[in-house]
Design a protein that fits this description.
24% strand; SR1P; GapA-binding peptide SR1P; binds zinc ion; three-stranded mixed β-sheet
Length: 62
């Protein structure tokens, strides 16, 4: 009994990656249908300082 195994490892090819746009660090993974790549920002001070450059077209909500 208790022979059930987690199916997590059976679907490793179908997940989304959240990468840092500056250093490509894998920040997180998401259970999605198909492989997806999302870009975000990691906790590195280096990346955060890069992100702080006020030069992009503003896309802030309000
Ligand atoms: Zn980073």
């Amino acid at each position: 009994m208790g022979a059930e195994r987690a199916e997590v490892y059976g679907s490793r090819e179908n997940y989304g990656l959240v990468l840092c746009r500056h250093c490509n660090e894998i920040i997180d993974t998401l259970p999605t249908n198909g492989v997806k790549k999302l870009y975000s920002l990691c906790d590195s001070e280096r990346c955060r300082s890069l992100q702080a450059v006020p030069s992009d077209i503003g896309e802030e909500p309000a």
